[in-house]
Amino acid sequence: MEEDTVKRIGIIGVGEIGRAIVTGLHHGGGASPEVFLSPRGARMAAELSERYEGVEVCADNQEVVDRSELVILAVRRQDWHGALAGVRVGGDRIVVNVMAGVGNDDLRRTLGTNAPLVRAIPLPTIRERRSVTVVHPSHPEVDSFFARMGGALPVADEAAFNVLSALTGTLTTHYAYLATLASWAADHGIAPDDADRYVRGLFQGVGRSLGDETRSLDRLAADHETPNGNNERIRTTWFDPANVEALTKALDDLLADLA
Ligand SMILES: NC(=O)C1=CN([C@@H]2O[C@H](COP(=O)(O)OP(=O)(O)OC[C@H]3O[C@@H](n4cnc5c(N)ncnc54)[C@H](OP(=O)(O)O)[C@@H]3O)[C@@H](O)[C@H]2O)C=CC1
To answer: Is 127 left (phi over 0), alpha (psi -120 to 50) or beta?
Structure first.
């Protein structure tokens, strides 16, 4: 594995995404940077420091900043003012802001720092180094950090960043859609475990097809569809123009809030 350029990483907000990042840093073995965790989310932080060598829980958020070169801010949107109140961030630190809906201008005003601030959208699959992480603005250390964690996708401005951020808001709907399919089959007499297993298998196949980047998404859809067949029927009767419009509106509304 390529050597890490950043040797000390801090995480303020050790919840789901914080844990996924720490897990990803240790995925596949090999040398990992030292990691300094904030004390809140105490159980998770303690579990991670017990599991991985070189992961330490700090006494407070200031200590996380003081001991790290690159600090990842991963608290919930409603908690970020409290989490950073009184925290001093020197200009020699790099701050990675993964908090959805928190712009860098706002963050810089609160922190009163001239440190580089980079927004990023890591996904839970970063735990297996499979997340392509959107970043803005591009920063060499941050880009290479996320490149090693599955891929970095720097975008030109915060408007583009927000568009891609809105897309990530559709993930749990996708799981709920799959759960609805399995539940429908169970309601029609299929054993729930069988329905669950079958739906997972179907869509794992879809996931593998998506890996074929030589075919566009429209092409993949067309290639899976027989003219006048079952797939065309469901696509045109359920995912009809009204449904597409409702989805588009939900995304537009989310984008307006993110901006
Ligand atoms: N989950 C995801 O897939 C992704 C999440 N994000 C963003 O990451 C952020 C965190 O999300 P997620 O991990 O899901 O949330 P979680 O609720 O799982 O984790 C948030 C953590 O922040 C801790 N916390 C709260 N207040 C403070 C504080 N003052 N100082 C330090 N830590 C504090 C909480 O501790 P306690 O439990 O003690 O309250 C909790 O452990 C959000 O802003 C979200 O938008 C971004 C990309 C993906």
So the answer is: alpha
If you ran DSSP here, which 8-state letter would residue 215 be given?
S
Rounded Cα–Cα distance for residues 79 and 45 (Å):
17
Confirm whether the ipTM is greater than 0.90.
Answer: yes
User: Which has the closest alpha carbon to 67: 95, 112, 36, 90?
Assistant: 36
CA 128 to CA 120: how far, in whole Å? 17
Looking at the structure, tell me whether residues 144 and 207 fall in a common domain.
no
| Tens digit of each residue's pLDDT (9 = 90 or more) over 53-106 | 999 999 999 999 999 999 999 999 999 999 999 999 999 999 999 998 899 999
Distance 126 CA to ligand 1 centre (A): 16
Residue in 17, 121, 133, 257 to alter for ligand 1 test, most ligand atoms within 8 A of Cβ: 17
Q: What is the b/e burial string over 156-184, where b = at least 16 CB atoms within 10 angstroms of the residue's CB?
A: eebeebbeebbeeeeeeeeeeeeeebbee
Determine whether the shortest distance from the Cβ of 258 to ligand 1 is under 6 A: no
Q: Whose CA is nearest to atom 2 of ligand 1?
A: 17
Tell whether 96 and 120 lie within a shared domain.
Answer: yes
Task: Tell which residue, 145, 102, 150, has the closest CA to residue 124.
Answer: 150
Overall domain count for the chain: 2
CATH of the domain at 123: 3.40.50.720
Question: What is the token pair recorded at 49?
Answer: 């420091």
Nearest one of 225, 213, 217, 181 to 200, comparing CA atoms: 181
